[in-house]
Amino acid sequence: MQYSIPRGTYDILPEDSPKWHRVIAEFRKLVEAYGYAEIVTPIFEQAALFERSSGESSDVVKKEMYRFTDRKGREFALRPEGTAPVARSYIENRMDIGSSYTKLYYLGPMFRYDRPQAGRYRQFYQYGVEFIGSNNPYYDAEIIAILWNYLTGLGLKKLHLELNSVGCSVCAKEYDKALRDYFQPYLNQLCPDCQERFERKPRRILDCKVKECGDIAKKAPIQLDYLDEPCREHFSEVQHYLDLMKIPFIINPRIVRGLDYYTNTAFEVIYEGIGAQNALAGGGRYNGLLNQIGGKNIPAVGFAGGFERLFLSLNEEKITLPGPPFPEVFIITIGREAQELIIPYLNIIRVKGIYAEYEPDRASLKAQLKAANNSKAYYALLIGEEEIKQKSALLKNLESGEQKLYSLEPISDLIKTIQNKEL
């Protein structure tokens, strides 16, 4: 029987791995410059964690979570998003002790039972940042700046940042009432999911992908008209800091985000040109989440983005990322004795971090030279009868043809030449 990959997943093949390493390295470098440290959480958590954080009526919980029951009857779920596990770890490990705030970032796979399409998978890879410990609007702007600088730093240009405020628990009540008043006459025209959302979370109707619901929602009231004074001032300050950072943005009052824990600032970075799934990343403030899952009432803000859509965008703009590396040196041996001589040194060369290739199945000098050229190696290291007698090796630059004999005892001079490409 031949097995195939599960629907909605994909393999990261060797030719693509260097591209992943590059975008991840750029992300790590940037967030660590802002003072964020990496946190790694399990890929599964108690299902109740996501029910409490994302909302029992959310699509993530109702339709998309991969749930399972262990042998003791406990309910777990593969993590559908990264913020709730980070918040759980923050509380459980008492990260609030000894510091007024905590800066964290994460990388890893998430899981949602969703309809696969371009940029949307059932196992997908996220990068994310969480700032915990302050309600200062500066940190909303800092979080957004990290995301914007990361994406533009990779070379993406067809981006725009959309910004909104979803208010707080106080002003949200008045807004929810206004939404129910608006949608009431259209209730029978809404899809079954939105009819259920009408009572529990009417703002979710604004994010419905059903065309009829979207058309009805176009003239619905907007949250910005219902912000109380503290929320209005907070939103104004976020915009002010973004202006100071020279980060362009547009106000989109329709951003509601798909999870229940968002308060105040909500934002998305949109890329034009990759189809319907064009939100590269998004996030916002979630001041009530930690208290909601058993912690103190500590404010927080963060974002998450998907690597899959990021790669689609990089390909769209034809931004070149590294391919598989070429060998720095290709070992060529003539005869068994030459092989016995070089193998201990080959091990030393590789331990020094030099990419050295060797193919002992190829016996003839001609076949080995051809393999060295095909590998696009920078050097060839040849060991024949004369080299065996002198306990040496001939290093040849495969581009220029220049060559030089090096003693293998000590091997340090040879290693230095290969590392510095001095020949």
From TrEMBL:
EC number, UniProt record: 6.1.1.21
Main enzyme class: ligase
Domain of life, per lineage: Bacteria
Keywords, comma-separated and alphabetical: Ligase
Protein name: Histidine--tRNA ligase
The species this protein was found in: Candidatus Syntrophosphaera thermopropionivorans
Upper lineage: Bacteria, Pseudomonadati, Candidatus Cloacimonadota, Candidatus Cloacimonadia, Candidatus Cloacimonadales
